[in-house]
Amino acid sequence: MTASLKTKTIHALSWSFIETIGLQGTHFIIGVILARLLLPEQFGLIAMLSIFMAVAQSLLDSGFGSALIQKQDITQTDLSSVFYFNILIGIAAAGLLSISAPYIATFYNQPELIALTRAMSLIIVINSFSLIQYTLAAKNLNFKTITKVSVLSNVISGIIGISMAYNGFGVWSLVSQQISRSFLSAILLWIFNSWRPSLSFSIKSLKNMFGYGSRMLASGLLNQIFNNLHLLVIGRIFTAASLGFFTRAKSLSELPAQSITSMVGRVTFPVFSSIQDDIPRIKNGMKKALTTLALITFPIMIGLAVTARPVVLLLFTDKWAESIPYVRLLSIIGMLYPLHVINLNILQALGRSDLFFRLEVIKKILIVINIAVTWRWGIMAMIYGMLVISIISYYFNSYYNKFMIKYSFTEQLFDLLPYIIISSIMGLSVYSFELIHFKSILLLLICQITSGLIIYLLLCRIFQVKAFMDLLRTVLNKINLPKNKIITSQEI
Protein backbone atom coordinates (compact mmCIF):
# COMPACT_ATOMS: atom_id res chain seq x y z
CA MET A 1 0.00 0.00 0.00
CA THR A 2 2.80 2.40 0.91
CA ALA A 3 4.77 1.67 -2.24
CA SER A 4 1.64 1.99 -4.37
CA LEU A 5 0.72 5.33 -2.83
CA LYS A 6 4.27 6.60 -3.27
CA THR A 7 4.26 5.57 -6.93
CA LYS A 8 0.89 7.25 -7.54
CA THR A 9 2.05 10.38 -5.76
CA ILE A 10 5.26 10.64 -7.80
CA HIS A 11 3.29 10.01 -11.01
CA ALA A 12 0.74 12.65 -10.04
CA LEU A 13 3.44 15.16 -9.13
CA SER A 14 5.16 14.54 -12.46
CA TRP A 15 2.01 15.27 -14.44
CA SER A 16 1.10 18.15 -12.17
CA PHE A 17 4.56 19.58 -12.84
CA ILE A 18 4.11 19.17 -16.59
CA GLU A 19 0.71 20.84 -16.39
CA THR A 20 2.10 23.71 -14.34
CA ILE A 21 4.95 24.32 -16.76
CA GLY A 22 2.69 23.99 -19.80
CA LEU A 23 -0.28 25.89 -18.44
CA GLN A 24 1.52 28.67 -16.61
CA GLY A 25 4.09 28.97 -19.37
CA THR A 26 1.44 29.50 -22.03
CA HIS A 27 -0.62 31.65 -19.66
CA PHE A 28 2.42 33.84 -19.00
CA ILE A 29 3.27 34.25 -22.68
CA ILE A 30 -0.34 35.02 -23.58
CA GLY A 31 -0.53 37.53 -20.71
CA VAL A 32 2.62 39.31 -21.88
CA ILE A 33 1.31 39.62 -25.44
CA LEU A 34 -2.09 40.88 -24.28
CA ALA A 35 -0.43 43.39 -21.92
CA ARG A 36 1.52 44.79 -24.86
CA LEU A 37 -1.62 45.04 -27.03
CA LEU A 38 -4.06 46.37 -24.43
CA LEU A 39 -4.11 49.22 -21.91
CA PRO A 40 -3.88 49.01 -18.08
CA GLU A 41 -7.43 50.38 -17.70
CA GLN A 42 -8.82 47.55 -19.84
CA PHE A 43 -7.28 44.99 -17.50
CA GLY A 44 -8.63 47.07 -14.64
CA LEU A 45 -12.21 46.72 -15.90
CA ILE A 46 -11.97 42.91 -15.80
CA ALA A 47 -10.31 43.08 -12.38
CA MET A 48 -13.31 45.02 -11.07
CA LEU A 49 -15.41 41.92 -11.66
CA SER A 50 -12.96 39.55 -9.97
CA ILE A 51 -14.63 39.54 -6.57
CA PHE A 52 -18.07 38.84 -8.04
CA MET A 53 -16.82 36.04 -10.27
CA ALA A 54 -14.84 34.52 -7.40
CA VAL A 55 -17.89 34.50 -5.10
CA ALA A 56 -20.04 32.94 -7.82
CA GLN A 57 -17.43 30.23 -8.44
CA SER A 58 -17.27 29.42 -4.71
CA LEU A 59 -21.06 29.11 -4.59
CA LEU A 60 -20.86 26.81 -7.58
CA ASP A 61 -18.49 24.41 -5.85
CA SER A 62 -20.56 24.65 -2.63
CA GLY A 63 -17.76 22.86 -0.75
CA PHE A 64 -18.86 19.52 -2.22
CA GLY A 65 -15.78 19.24 -4.42
CA SER A 66 -13.51 19.16 -1.36
CA ALA A 67 -15.99 16.89 0.43
CA LEU A 68 -15.86 14.35 -2.41
CA ILE A 69 -12.05 14.33 -2.32
CA GLN A 70 -11.95 13.96 1.45
CA LYS A 71 -14.66 11.27 1.61
CA GLN A 72 -13.27 7.74 1.44
CA ASP A 73 -16.28 5.88 -0.03
CA ILE A 74 -18.09 7.98 -2.61
CA THR A 75 -20.94 6.44 -4.63
CA GLN A 76 -22.49 7.10 -8.02
CA THR A 77 -25.45 8.66 -6.21
CA ASP A 78 -23.11 11.03 -4.38
CA LEU A 79 -21.53 12.15 -7.63
CA SER A 80 -24.78 12.51 -9.57
CA SER A 81 -26.45 14.43 -6.75
CA VAL A 82 -23.59 16.92 -6.54
CA PHE A 83 -23.51 17.19 -10.34
CA TYR A 84 -27.16 18.22 -10.65
CA PHE A 85 -26.92 20.46 -7.60
CA ASN A 86 -23.92 22.26 -9.15
CA ILE A 87 -25.84 22.97 -12.34
CA LEU A 88 -28.75 24.49 -10.40
CA ILE A 89 -26.39 26.65 -8.38
CA GLY A 90 -24.46 27.67 -11.51
CA ILE A 91 -27.61 28.87 -13.28
CA ALA A 92 -28.80 30.69 -10.16
CA ALA A 93 -25.43 32.38 -9.58
CA ALA A 94 -25.17 33.48 -13.23
CA GLY A 95 -28.72 34.84 -13.09
CA LEU A 96 -27.95 36.79 -9.94
CA LEU A 97 -24.84 38.26 -11.55
CA SER A 98 -26.81 39.36 -14.61
CA ILE A 99 -29.47 41.03 -12.47
CA SER A 100 -26.79 42.77 -10.40
CA ALA A 101 -24.87 44.06 -13.44
CA PRO A 102 -26.36 47.62 -13.41
CA TYR A 103 -25.62 47.99 -9.69
CA ILE A 104 -22.04 46.81 -10.16
CA ALA A 105 -21.56 49.33 -12.98
CA THR A 106 -23.00 52.11 -10.80
CA PHE A 107 -20.77 51.19 -7.86
CA TYR A 108 -17.63 51.58 -9.99
CA ASN A 109 -19.10 54.36 -12.17
CA GLN A 110 -18.24 52.28 -15.25
CA PRO A 111 -21.31 51.82 -17.54
CA GLU A 112 -19.39 49.34 -19.72
CA LEU A 113 -19.45 46.85 -16.85
CA ILE A 114 -23.14 46.04 -17.43
CA ALA A 115 -22.48 44.13 -20.64
CA LEU A 116 -19.15 42.77 -19.38
CA THR A 117 -20.73 41.32 -16.22
CA ARG A 118 -23.51 39.58 -18.10
CA ALA A 119 -21.07 38.09 -20.59
CA MET A 120 -18.71 36.86 -17.85
CA SER A 121 -21.61 35.20 -15.99
CA LEU A 122 -21.69 32.57 -18.76
CA ILE A 123 -18.44 31.18 -17.32
CA ILE A 124 -20.22 30.11 -14.12
CA VAL A 125 -22.85 28.11 -16.04
CA ILE A 126 -20.21 26.46 -18.21
CA ASN A 127 -18.05 25.52 -15.22
CA SER A 128 -21.00 23.88 -13.45
CA PHE A 129 -21.00 21.07 -16.04
CA SER A 130 -17.37 20.09 -15.48
CA LEU A 131 -16.76 20.40 -11.74
CA ILE A 132 -17.38 16.71 -10.97
CA GLN A 133 -15.18 15.61 -13.87
CA TYR A 134 -12.31 17.71 -12.53
CA THR A 135 -12.89 16.60 -8.92
CA LEU A 136 -12.74 12.90 -9.87
CA ALA A 137 -9.52 13.41 -11.81
CA ALA A 138 -7.94 15.19 -8.83
CA LYS A 139 -9.18 12.60 -6.30
CA ASN A 140 -7.74 9.76 -8.39
CA LEU A 141 -4.47 11.71 -8.89
CA ASN A 142 -5.15 11.63 -12.64
CA PHE A 143 -3.23 14.79 -13.43
CA LYS A 144 -2.36 13.50 -16.88
CA THR A 145 -5.94 14.23 -17.95
CA ILE A 146 -5.98 17.58 -16.15
CA THR A 147 -2.73 18.51 -17.91
CA LYS A 148 -4.10 17.78 -21.37
CA VAL A 149 -7.28 19.72 -20.69
CA SER A 150 -5.59 22.74 -19.11
CA VAL A 151 -2.87 23.21 -21.70
CA LEU A 152 -5.11 22.68 -24.74
CA SER A 153 -7.87 24.99 -23.52
CA ASN A 154 -5.40 27.66 -22.43
CA VAL A 155 -3.52 27.69 -25.75
CA ILE A 156 -6.62 27.80 -27.94
CA SER A 157 -8.40 30.44 -25.83
CA GLY A 158 -5.18 32.45 -25.72
CA ILE A 159 -5.00 32.50 -29.50
CA ILE A 160 -8.61 33.69 -29.61
CA GLY A 161 -7.90 36.48 -27.11
CA ILE A 162 -4.73 37.66 -28.85
CA SER A 163 -6.41 37.66 -32.28
CA MET A 164 -9.26 39.79 -30.98
CA ALA A 165 -6.90 42.18 -29.16
CA TYR A 166 -4.80 42.59 -32.32
CA ASN A 167 -7.94 43.43 -34.29
CA GLY A 168 -9.02 46.14 -31.88
CA PHE A 169 -11.69 44.45 -29.73
CA GLY A 170 -10.13 45.88 -26.56
CA VAL A 171 -11.49 44.58 -23.25
CA TRP A 172 -13.77 42.12 -25.05
CA SER A 173 -10.73 40.14 -26.13
CA LEU A 174 -10.12 39.37 -22.43
CA VAL A 175 -13.76 38.36 -21.94
CA SER A 176 -13.73 36.09 -24.98
CA GLN A 177 -10.51 34.49 -23.85
CA GLN A 178 -11.95 33.56 -20.45
CA ILE A 179 -15.28 32.28 -21.79
CA SER A 180 -13.66 30.17 -24.48
CA ARG A 181 -11.18 28.70 -21.96
CA SER A 182 -14.01 27.56 -19.67
CA PHE A 183 -15.99 26.14 -22.58
CA LEU A 184 -13.04 24.21 -24.00
CA SER A 185 -12.09 22.88 -20.55
CA ALA A 186 -15.61 21.57 -19.99
CA ILE A 187 -15.75 19.86 -23.38
CA LEU A 188 -12.32 18.26 -23.00
CA LEU A 189 -12.98 17.04 -19.45
CA TRP A 190 -16.06 15.22 -20.71
CA ILE A 191 -14.10 13.72 -23.58
CA PHE A 192 -11.16 12.50 -21.48
CA ASN A 193 -13.17 11.40 -18.41
CA SER A 194 -15.44 8.35 -18.62
CA TRP A 195 -17.73 9.25 -15.72
CA ARG A 196 -21.30 10.14 -16.62
CA PRO A 197 -24.16 11.15 -14.28
CA SER A 198 -26.99 8.73 -13.63
CA LEU A 199 -30.64 9.66 -13.23
CA SER A 200 -30.40 9.71 -9.46
CA PHE A 201 -30.55 12.53 -6.95
CA SER A 202 -30.39 12.13 -3.19
CA ILE A 203 -30.95 14.88 -0.66
CA LYS A 204 -29.66 12.47 1.98
CA SER A 205 -26.39 12.11 0.09
CA LEU A 206 -25.94 15.89 -0.04
CA LYS A 207 -26.78 16.18 3.65
CA ASN A 208 -24.12 13.60 4.55
CA MET A 209 -21.48 15.75 2.86
CA PHE A 210 -22.95 19.06 3.91
CA GLY A 211 -21.31 19.13 7.36
CA TYR A 212 -17.81 19.11 5.85
CA GLY A 213 -18.78 20.81 2.60
CA SER A 214 -20.71 23.70 4.16
CA ARG A 215 -17.74 24.77 6.26
CA MET A 216 -15.48 24.50 3.23
CA LEU A 217 -18.03 26.56 1.27
CA ALA A 218 -18.09 29.23 3.97
CA SER A 219 -14.29 29.20 4.10
CA GLY A 220 -14.08 29.41 0.32
CA LEU A 221 -16.53 32.31 0.18
CA LEU A 222 -14.66 34.21 2.86
CA ASN A 223 -11.35 33.48 1.15
CA GLN A 224 -12.51 34.63 -2.27
CA ILE A 225 -14.27 37.75 -1.00
CA PHE A 226 -11.39 38.95 1.10
CA ASN A 227 -8.66 37.89 -1.34
CA ASN A 228 -10.33 40.16 -3.87
CA LEU A 229 -11.38 42.89 -1.45
CA HIS A 230 -8.30 44.94 -2.29
CA LEU A 231 -9.39 44.94 -5.94
CA LEU A 232 -12.84 46.15 -4.94
CA VAL A 233 -11.45 49.01 -2.84
CA ILE A 234 -8.78 50.06 -5.35
CA GLY A 235 -11.28 49.95 -8.22
CA ARG A 236 -13.79 52.04 -6.24
CA ILE A 237 -11.38 54.65 -4.80
CA PHE A 238 -8.72 54.90 -7.49
CA THR A 239 -8.83 54.68 -11.29
CA ALA A 240 -9.27 51.67 -13.57
CA ALA A 241 -5.65 52.18 -14.70
CA SER A 242 -4.41 52.06 -11.09
CA LEU A 243 -6.27 48.80 -10.61
CA GLY A 244 -4.74 47.54 -13.85
CA PHE A 245 -1.22 48.25 -12.56
CA PHE A 246 -1.98 46.51 -9.27
CA THR A 247 -3.52 43.42 -10.89
CA ARG A 248 -0.65 43.10 -13.38
CA ALA A 249 1.86 43.26 -10.51
CA LYS A 250 -0.22 40.80 -8.47
CA SER A 251 -0.52 38.41 -11.40
CA LEU A 252 3.22 38.50 -12.10
CA SER A 253 4.25 38.09 -8.46
CA GLU A 254 1.77 35.27 -7.81
CA LEU A 255 2.70 33.27 -10.90
CA PRO A 256 5.81 31.46 -9.59
CA ALA A 257 4.80 30.71 -5.99
CA GLN A 258 1.17 29.87 -6.65
CA SER A 259 1.97 27.74 -9.69
CA ILE A 260 4.55 25.64 -7.86
CA THR A 261 2.48 25.43 -4.68
CA SER A 262 -0.65 24.49 -6.59
CA MET A 263 1.27 21.73 -8.33
CA VAL A 264 2.27 20.24 -4.97
CA GLY A 265 -0.75 21.25 -2.90
CA ARG A 266 -3.43 19.66 -5.03
CA VAL A 267 -1.51 16.38 -4.95
CA THR A 268 -0.74 16.47 -1.23
CA PHE A 269 -4.38 17.08 -0.22
CA PRO A 270 -5.73 13.78 -1.64
CA VAL A 271 -2.54 11.98 -0.54
CA PHE A 272 -2.77 13.28 3.03
CA SER A 273 -6.49 12.44 3.01
CA SER A 274 -5.70 8.83 2.10
CA ILE A 275 -3.33 8.47 5.09
CA GLN A 276 -5.29 10.65 7.51
CA ASP A 277 -5.09 7.99 10.27
CA ASP A 278 -1.27 7.81 10.17
CA ILE A 279 -0.12 11.01 11.91
CA PRO A 280 3.67 10.32 11.77
CA ARG A 281 3.48 9.80 8.00
CA ILE A 282 1.47 13.00 7.58
CA LYS A 283 4.01 15.01 9.60
CA ASN A 284 6.91 13.57 7.63
CA GLY A 285 5.11 14.25 4.35
CA MET A 286 4.29 17.81 5.37
CA LYS A 287 7.87 18.51 6.39
CA LYS A 288 9.17 17.27 3.03
CA ALA A 289 6.56 19.25 1.11
CA LEU A 290 7.23 22.43 3.09
CA THR A 291 11.03 22.37 2.74
CA THR A 292 10.92 21.35 -0.92
CA LEU A 293 8.59 24.25 -1.70
CA ALA A 294 10.84 26.61 0.27
CA LEU A 295 13.89 25.37 -1.65
CA ILE A 296 12.24 26.31 -4.94
CA THR A 297 9.93 29.24 -4.22
CA PHE A 298 12.02 31.31 -1.79
CA PRO A 299 14.86 32.08 -4.25
CA ILE A 300 12.43 32.60 -7.13
CA MET A 301 10.32 35.11 -5.22
CA ILE A 302 13.28 37.02 -3.78
CA GLY A 303 14.84 36.93 -7.23
CA LEU A 304 11.70 38.41 -8.78
CA ALA A 305 11.63 41.14 -6.12
CA VAL A 306 15.18 42.29 -6.88
CA THR A 307 14.83 42.02 -10.69
CA ALA A 308 11.37 43.63 -10.88
CA ARG A 309 12.51 46.70 -12.85
CA PRO A 310 14.15 44.94 -15.82
CA VAL A 311 11.49 42.20 -15.82
CA VAL A 312 8.54 44.64 -16.07
CA LEU A 313 10.21 46.96 -18.58
CA LEU A 314 11.29 44.11 -20.85
CA LEU A 315 8.07 42.12 -20.74
CA PHE A 316 5.37 44.77 -20.60
CA THR A 317 7.12 47.96 -21.84
CA ASP A 318 7.35 51.37 -20.15
CA LYS A 319 3.56 51.84 -19.97
CA TRP A 320 3.51 49.34 -17.05
CA ALA A 321 6.42 50.93 -15.12
CA GLU A 322 4.10 52.12 -12.35
CA SER A 323 3.63 48.48 -11.29
CA ILE A 324 7.35 47.89 -10.49
CA PRO A 325 7.25 48.80 -6.75
CA TYR A 326 4.09 46.70 -6.39
CA VAL A 327 5.87 43.69 -7.90
CA ARG A 328 8.78 44.00 -5.46
CA LEU A 329 6.64 43.96 -2.33
CA LEU A 330 4.04 41.46 -3.55
CA SER A 331 6.86 39.03 -4.39
CA ILE A 332 7.97 39.00 -0.75
CA ILE A 333 4.38 38.29 0.26
CA GLY A 334 4.34 35.46 -2.28
CA MET A 335 7.12 33.68 -0.39
CA LEU A 336 4.64 32.88 2.37
CA TYR A 337 1.98 31.45 0.06
CA PRO A 338 3.25 27.82 0.09
CA LEU A 339 3.48 27.91 3.88
CA HIS A 340 -0.19 28.83 4.14
CA VAL A 341 -1.35 26.19 1.67
CA ILE A 342 0.50 23.21 3.13
CA ASN A 343 -0.61 23.98 6.69
CA LEU A 344 -4.24 24.35 5.63
CA ASN A 345 -4.02 21.16 3.54
CA ILE A 346 -3.41 19.22 6.74
CA LEU A 347 -6.58 20.56 8.37
CA GLN A 348 -8.59 19.68 5.27
CA ALA A 349 -7.09 16.21 4.98
CA LEU A 350 -7.87 15.45 8.63
CA GLY A 351 -11.46 16.55 8.13
CA ARG A 352 -11.18 19.59 10.41
CA SER A 353 -13.09 22.00 8.21
CA ASP A 354 -14.39 23.61 11.40
CA LEU A 355 -10.88 24.75 12.33
CA PHE A 356 -10.23 25.71 8.71
CA PHE A 357 -13.30 27.96 8.78
CA ARG A 358 -12.36 29.46 12.16
CA LEU A 359 -8.94 30.42 10.82
CA GLU A 360 -10.47 31.99 7.72
CA VAL A 361 -12.75 34.18 9.85
CA ILE A 362 -9.82 35.42 11.97
CA LYS A 363 -7.67 36.20 8.94
CA LYS A 364 -10.46 38.02 7.13
CA ILE A 365 -11.02 40.27 10.12
CA LEU A 366 -7.33 41.18 9.92
CA ILE A 367 -7.71 41.98 6.21
CA VAL A 368 -10.60 44.37 6.90
CA ILE A 369 -8.56 46.09 9.61
CA ASN A 370 -5.63 46.46 7.21
CA ILE A 371 -7.74 48.03 4.46
CA ALA A 372 -9.57 50.32 6.90
CA VAL A 373 -6.27 51.61 8.27
CA THR A 374 -4.10 51.86 5.13
CA TRP A 375 -6.29 52.84 2.15
CA ARG A 376 -6.03 56.60 2.81
CA TRP A 377 -2.23 56.44 2.26
CA GLY A 378 -2.47 54.75 -1.13
CA ILE A 379 -1.88 51.38 -2.75
CA MET A 380 1.68 50.88 -1.45
CA ALA A 381 0.50 51.34 2.13
CA MET A 382 -2.16 48.68 1.53
CA ILE A 383 0.47 46.27 0.22
CA TYR A 384 2.71 46.83 3.26
CA GLY A 385 -0.33 46.01 5.38
CA MET A 386 -0.88 42.84 3.32
CA LEU A 387 2.67 41.75 4.17
CA VAL A 388 2.07 42.18 7.90
CA ILE A 389 -1.23 40.28 7.68
CA SER A 390 0.41 37.46 5.72
CA ILE A 391 3.06 36.94 8.41
CA ILE A 392 0.45 36.91 11.17
CA SER A 393 -1.75 34.55 9.12
CA TYR A 394 1.07 32.05 8.75
CA TYR A 395 1.28 31.78 12.53
CA PHE A 396 -2.47 31.19 12.77
CA ASN A 397 -2.49 28.65 9.92
CA SER A 398 0.22 26.59 11.61
CA TYR A 399 -1.22 26.88 15.13
CA TYR A 400 -3.47 23.80 15.19
CA ASN A 401 -0.86 21.57 13.54
CA LYS A 402 1.16 21.91 16.74
CA PHE A 403 -1.48 19.77 18.45
CA MET A 404 -2.76 17.65 15.55
CA ILE A 405 0.51 16.40 14.05
CA LYS A 406 3.09 17.81 16.52
CA TYR A 407 4.58 20.19 13.97
CA SER A 408 4.61 23.64 15.54
CA PHE A 409 5.19 27.11 14.09
CA THR A 410 8.61 27.24 15.80
CA GLU A 411 9.69 23.88 14.41
CA GLN A 412 8.57 24.90 10.94
CA LEU A 413 10.57 28.13 11.13
CA PHE A 414 13.63 26.20 12.25
CA ASP A 415 13.28 23.90 9.22
CA LEU A 416 12.80 26.89 6.89
CA LEU A 417 15.61 29.05 8.26
CA PRO A 418 18.41 27.72 5.96
CA TYR A 419 16.33 28.49 2.87
CA ILE A 420 15.48 31.98 4.10
CA ILE A 421 19.14 32.83 4.83
CA ILE A 422 20.57 31.43 1.59
CA SER A 423 17.84 33.02 -0.55
CA SER A 424 18.41 36.40 1.14
CA ILE A 425 22.17 36.24 0.51
CA MET A 426 21.47 35.43 -3.11
CA GLY A 427 18.97 38.30 -3.39
CA LEU A 428 21.39 40.90 -1.99
CA SER A 429 24.09 39.72 -4.39
CA VAL A 430 21.78 39.95 -7.38
CA TYR A 431 20.41 43.37 -6.39
CA SER A 432 23.97 44.77 -6.31
CA PHE A 433 23.97 44.60 -10.13
CA GLU A 434 21.50 47.52 -10.08
CA LEU A 435 24.42 49.70 -8.92
CA ILE A 436 26.32 48.95 -12.12
CA HIS A 437 25.47 50.88 -15.28
CA PHE A 438 24.34 48.52 -18.05
CA LYS A 439 23.68 49.80 -21.55
CA SER A 440 20.99 47.16 -22.00
CA ILE A 441 18.16 46.19 -19.62
CA LEU A 442 18.26 42.72 -21.15
CA LEU A 443 21.98 42.35 -20.34
CA LEU A 444 21.30 43.43 -16.75
CA LEU A 445 18.55 40.83 -16.35
CA ILE A 446 20.68 38.06 -17.87
CA CYS A 447 23.55 38.85 -15.49
CA GLN A 448 21.20 38.94 -12.52
CA ILE A 449 19.50 35.63 -13.33
CA THR A 450 22.75 33.82 -14.13
CA SER A 451 24.60 35.03 -11.05
CA GLY A 452 21.58 34.38 -8.82
CA LEU A 453 21.24 30.80 -9.99
CA ILE A 454 24.95 30.05 -9.58
CA ILE A 455 25.17 31.65 -6.13
CA TYR A 456 22.07 29.86 -4.83
CA LEU A 457 23.08 26.41 -6.09
CA LEU A 458 26.61 26.80 -4.74
CA LEU A 459 25.37 27.87 -1.31
CA CYS A 460 22.90 24.97 -1.16
CA ARG A 461 25.64 22.53 -2.15
CA ILE A 462 28.30 23.92 0.17
CA PHE A 463 26.03 23.96 3.22
CA GLN A 464 24.42 20.62 2.31
CA VAL A 465 20.86 21.96 2.61
CA LYS A 466 18.67 18.92 3.21
CA ALA A 467 15.90 19.44 0.64
CA PHE A 468 18.50 20.30 -2.00
CA MET A 469 20.59 17.22 -1.24
CA ASP A 470 17.52 14.97 -1.26
CA LEU A 471 16.47 16.39 -4.61
CA LEU A 472 19.98 16.03 -5.98
CA ARG A 473 20.15 12.39 -4.87
CA THR A 474 16.84 11.69 -6.55
CA VAL A 475 18.00 13.25 -9.82
CA LEU A 476 21.33 11.41 -9.76
CA ASN A 477 19.61 8.13 -9.02
CA LYS A 478 17.35 8.67 -12.01
CA ILE A 479 20.36 9.10 -14.30
CA ASN A 480 22.29 6.31 -12.52
CA LEU A 481 25.22 8.37 -11.25
CA PRO A 482 27.14 7.13 -8.20
CA LYS A 483 25.58 8.30 -4.91
CA ASN A 484 28.96 9.01 -3.33
CA LYS A 485 29.38 11.90 -5.71
CA ILE A 486 26.98 13.98 -3.64
CA ILE A 487 27.70 12.90 -0.08
CA THR A 488 30.39 15.46 0.67
CA SER A 489 31.25 18.93 -0.53
CA GLN A 490 35.02 18.51 -0.91
CA GLU A 491 34.73 18.35 -4.69
CA ILE A 492 33.33 21.90 -4.99
Helices and strands, with pairings:
Blueprint: H1 2-37, H2 40-48, H3 50-61, H4 64-70, H5 76-108, H6 113-120, H7 122-128, H8 131-139, H9 143-166, H10 171-192, H11 203-227, H12 229-237, H13 240-274, H14 279-306, H15 308-316, H16 324-334, H17 337-349, H18 353-374, H19 379-399, H20 401-404, H21 409-431, H22 441-462, H23 466-478
Would you kindly provide a written description of the structure presented here, covering whatever features stand out?
Helix 5 packs antiparallel against helix 6. Residues 482-492 have low confidence and may be disordered. This protein is globular. It folds into two domains: 1-236, no CATH class; 238-492, no CATH class. It contains 23 helices and no strands. The chain starts with a helix and ends in a 14-residue tail after the last helix. The chain has helices spanning 2-37, 40-48, 50-61, 64-70, 76-108, 113-120, 122-128, 131-139, 143-166, 171-192, 203-227, 229-237, 240-274, 279-306, 308-316, 324-334, 337-349, 353-374, 379-399, 401-404, 409-431, 441-462, 466-478. 82% of the residues lie in helices and 0% in strands. The chain is mainly alpha-helical.
